[in-house]
Design goal:
heterodimer; A: 493 residues; mainly alpha; two-stranded antiparallel ribbon; B: 472 residues; two-stranded antiparallel sheet
Chain lengths: 493, 472
């Protein structure tokens, strides 16, 4: 492979956004601008599918690796994918075009700037999942704050300033400690190259502090209880496309980081801190599910459900079982699809009624049937009904948890029931019941683009629900080797 | 006589100052001519330094009282370039306030001369001479808009406090002379007796004097008032150029004669650094005037540069030189934006005047966005790399406390930078500002924005350039 396909994936959206920067923004050119952005992101999606096609599933080694001198003598620009990261790359490239299609109704002003922000965001997110050097990872991880801050702040709702600041400062505060840890790793081992670090290992006396530093960053980003409070605010105020990006991809950066860095680099510390993660995950699952039950605002409810779902993910990762980690990855992919769809569903009615409060709605099933059916599908996927991708993830996580710790698994299973409760109750209150609010009669059903977006999200949700083989095949070897490496490190300590 | 060939830049500037002064006195209305000539003088001096002395490893002149080495050449070039751009973009501003007098470029030239002497000094007396030359010129520059009450106040305040700090510094010099028998850095190093506490006192007094010049906490009180009161172009000069010279002296003074006494001064430097970073970040939050805000922000940034110096390693020294260089570029960009906030011959400098800037001035606000995020140290902009090098050096020495406090104060500082971005991008728009800016102003804005934005493409260039600075 001479063609730098990963760099192309990272750079392509930025190049597309450069075209947008030099175009004039007015009402006539808006559709051209949108097509340019859409074209870029679709090409990027096809490129990532091509990458998956070329991907060799029989090895856990990093593939398509590019290694260039960058900060000479310190950091190399090193990117590549393995079975774990490639799925996140595809998720990113799949969600972005849908976000761009969805801006039709939700973004009223400064469309060009919005699309530039989304495309640059895509570049950074792909960079996060592909980087094989800690400094490069940090660079992309942090850089994503800038476009997201602007997306929430410029195009958000009434309390957008507060939310944007909270989002930015929370995440930055979590991340600076990670920077200290990364530089410390450089001085301890002499490299920040992840592949080399996997081989070298890090002396066990440093691992605990380093693990905590990384944890501080990932816990905020995941978000784990008790540092999750930025998420509901950010979600509620962000425009629909922003919420979708945030829920579908940004949150996965931390889950990915846990697998790649916490488990991979600090196995001894991970082993030590597993009870901490279990406790926080369980609190997140139970506590935020209960909070979600009480929400009046649809977006907030889904935001809290994201926290609960990510609780499952962190729980699964730290079971260190094949099923647990595979389940977490599939849960992340599935949550990426489903939460994106749910936010879009909320966006659909919000664009028409300008209210996200649950009690505004009720009885809309007969007015907008297509919408109701799709909303139903995603509601069920979110609560993990068999036949949807949500089930596969949750089931495997619980299986892994049962292998590791019975009590934890039992408590986590309670969360599944609560999840069903708040999702179904939400659906009931919004879609069924008596039609009280007469304004709802004016609701129009999904237009073409909305229909297209939701169907494109529904198909993979169902497909991977019935036939998750392609996902398993891709991640299996990588996860297996990761666990082997983890266990051998534990034995050798 | 062979010695003279290495100080041609200094000789050239001093002769030019005298010539321009005479020319200005005898020729009426010659501001424009002298202004342009001064710009050319700075440029030529820069080229001379670049050609003549950049390759020199280390040469001592005049019985060892002047040193020409890579650090001095590099810092001189930066000083000259920064002064060059300040002069180039200040003309319209001066015209606007009707203070375009010949003294302005000449004073800037003389203060640059003083700084070049400081940068090359290897002797307490030479260093003091350079320091006073640049300070005297700066007092006058601060009051340059003499009909403005605030400007006069700024100059007077700066004069009084600076004289006090010079006194302390001189006292420190005499203590060191008394207990080591020499004013020459190299001889002091060889005569050093680490049991002599008076020497430590001497170091402390000199550090106080120097900390005052670079406005490190707790010797920063003058900075906000002086920065606010001085004409904006002079403030720009203040925030960049004197700091280059003072930081060079900081490095040379601590690492040449007193490297052995590192236990004595390292704590002081760590304290100065932590105090400046934290105070700069917290005090800037409540500011309403952009120039005051920049004063606090520059206090914070000096804290980071000092953290590199405090780490007592070549990496640390190099990282603070890198930090200062990148900071100067960011500062230049920010002030170029500030100088563009002009409407009907009024310059605006309150933060609220930036409200909604992004609607009418997309390019200007984008530049500000880049510069502010870079000042906050967010990757992938240049400001992140500056901080990265500093913390890399600091953590190498296992100074984790310094690193963590430093990084936490970047989070606090991020808040006030974000506040400006919020005002620019999220708030309702105001009237348009004028758009007929001088080409130099546009040039410096675009250049600095591009440098900051694309620094990440090849970040090791600057590291290579400064890697020849070695003291230990």
């Amino acid at each position: 492979m001479n063609f730098p396909i990963i760099s192309a994936l990272i750079l392509l959206p930025t190049i597309g956004s450069l075209f947008l920067i030099f175009s004039k923004s007015n009402d006539q050119s808006n559709s051209t601008i949108k097509y340019v952005a859409l074209f870029t992101s679709v090409v990027n999606f096809l490129l990532s599918i091509y990458l998956w096609f070329l991907f060799d599933e029989t090895t856990s080694a990093f593939q398509f690796v590019e290694d260039r001198e960058w900060l000479i003598g310190i950091v190399n620009y090193k990117v590549g994918v393995d079975g774990i990261s490639i799925l996140f790359v595809i998720l990113t490239t799949f969600i972005t075009p849908l976000c761009i299609i969805s801006v039709n109704n939700s973004v009223k002003k400064r469309l060009r700037d919005f699309l530039i922000a989304i495309l640059i965001m895509e570049s950074f997110m792909i960079g996060v999942f592909c980087s094989l050097d800690l400094v490069i990872f940090y660079l992309f991880f942090e850089a994503g704050l800038i476009p997201m801050f602007l997306i929430i702040g410029i195009w958000g709702g009434p309390k957008r300033v507060y939310s944007a600041f909270k989002f930015f400062l929370y995440t930055l505060l979590g991340s600076v400690l990670m920077l200290v840890a990364i530089i410390s790793i450089y001085w301890i081992t002499g490299t920040t190259d992840v592949v080399k670090l996997y081989e070298l290992g890090i002396d066990s006396k440093y691992q605990n502090l380093l693990w905590l530093a990384f944890f501080s960053s990932f816990a905020v980003k995941t978000p784990m209880w008790p540092v999750h409070t930025w998420l509901p605010d950010a979600h509620v105020e962000a425009p629909t496309a922003g919420s979708v990006l945030l829920a579908a991809i940004l949150l996965k950066m931390a889950g990915y980081g846990f697998i790649r860095f916490s488990l991979g680099l600090f196995p001894i510390a991970s082993d030590l801190f597993t009870p901490l993660i279990y406790a926080l995950s369980l609190i997140a699952i139970i506590f935020t599910s209960l909070i979600a039950l009480m929400q009046e605002d649809m977006k907030k409810l889904i935001a809290y459900s994201s926290v609960a779902h990510m609780g499952f993910v962190t729980l699964g990762i730290f079971t260190i079982q094949q099923q647990g980690i595979e389940g977490s990855i599939i849960q992340m992919i599935s949550h990426g699809l489903v939460s994106a769809a749910l936010f879009l569903c909320v966006g659909v009615v919000y664009d028409r009624m300008h209210s996200r409060l649950i009690n505004t709605y009720g009885g809309i099933v007969s007015i907008i049937p297509k919408y109701s059916v799709l909303f139903m599908l995603f509601t069920l996927a979110a609560l993990g009904l068999p036949g949807t991708s949500g089930f596969i993830g949750e089931f495997l996580i619980l299986m892994g948890a049962f292998k590791d710790n019975f009590l934890v698994a039992v408590i986590a299973s309670l969360g599944v029931i609560l999840g069903a409760a708040y999702m179904l109750w939400l659906y009931k209150r919004v879609v069924f019941g008596k039609l009280v609010n007469n304004d709802l009669n004016k609701l129009t059903d999904l237009d073409k683009s909305e229909y297209f977006i939701l169907i494109s999200l529904a198909l993979p949700t169902l497909f991977f629900g019935f036939y998750p083989e392609p996902l398993f095949n891709t991640i299996e070897v990588s996860v297996n080797d990761l666990i082997e490496m983890y266990n051998s490190n534990l034995i050798n300590k | 006589m062979i010695n003279l060939s290495f100080i041609i830049p200094e000789i050239f500037i001093s002769l030019s100052v005298m010539f321009l002064l005479i020319l200005g006195v005898f020729k009426k209305n010659s501001f424009e001519l002298i202004h342009n000539l001064s710009i050319i003088v700075l440029l030529i001096t820069g080229i001379i330094v670049f050609n003549e002395t950049l390759d020199i490893e280390k040469i001592l002149l005049f019985n060892g009282s002047v040193v020409i080495d890579y650090l001095s050449s590099f810092m001189k070039i930066i000083t000259l370039l920064a002064a060059f751009i300040v002069l180039a973009i200040s003309k319209n501003y001066l015209d606007n306030f009707k203070i375009s007098k010949i003294e302005y470029p000449i004073l800037i030239l003389s203060s640059v001369l003083g700084m070049m002497v400081m940068i090359s000094s290897n002797d307490l007396i030479v260093f003091y001479m350079g320091l006073e030359l640049q300070s005297l010129a700066l007092y006058v520059l601060a009051t340059f808009n003499r009909n403005n009450l605030k400007s006069s106040e700024a100059g007077l305040k700066y004069f009084v406090l600076s004289a006090l700090s010079s006194g302390l510094l001189l006292y420190g010099c005499s203590l060191i002379y008394g207990f080591s028998g020499s004013t020459n850095f190299e001889i002091i190093a060889s005569q050093l007796d680490s049991n002599e506490y008076a020497l430590t006192f001497g170091i402390v007094f000199i550090l106080v004097g120097l900390a005052f010049k670079i406005s490190a906490v707790p010797f920063h009180m003058w900075a906000p008032d002086v920065y606010e009161g001085s004409p904006t172009t002079v403030t720009l000069f203040f925030t960049m150029v004197p700091k280059i010279a003072a930081l060079t002296v900081f490095i040379r003074f601590l690492y040449v004669p007193f490297l052995e006494l590192i236990d004595q001064w390292q704590m002081i430097l760590v304290f100065l650094s932590i105090a400046s970073m934290l105070f700069g970040a917290i005090a800037a939050i409540g500011q309403k005037n952009i120039k005051r805000l920049i004063a606090y922000s520059s206090i914070g940034h000096i804290g980071y540069a000092l953290a590199g110096v405090a780490s007592a390693s070549n990496d640390g020294i190099q990282s603070s030189v890198i930090y200062l260089t990148i900071y100067i570029v960011m500062n230049l960009g920010f002030f170029s934006c500030l100088l563009m906030l002009r409407r009907n011959d009024n310059y605006y400098e309150s933060i609220d005047d930036l409200s909604g800037l992004s609607k009418n001035h997309p390019i200007l606000s984008f530049s500000l966005l880049v510069i502010l995020f870079s000042l906050a140290g967010i990757p992938p902009l240049a400001g992140f790399f500056a901080k990265f090098y500093i913390f890399k050096a600091v953590i190498e020495q296992s100074m984790y406390f310094l690193a963590i406090v430093g990084l936490l104060s970047t989070v606090i500082a991020a808040f006030y930078y974000l506040r400006i971005i919020k005002i620019i991008y999220f708030d309702p728009e105001k009237e348009k500002y004028d758009q007929d800016h001088s080409p130099w102003l546009k040039f410096s804005l675009i250049l600095s924005t591009l440098l900051i934005l694309f620094y990440f493409i090849s970040p090791s260039q600057l590291v290579e350039v400064v890697s020849r600075i070695n003291f230990i």
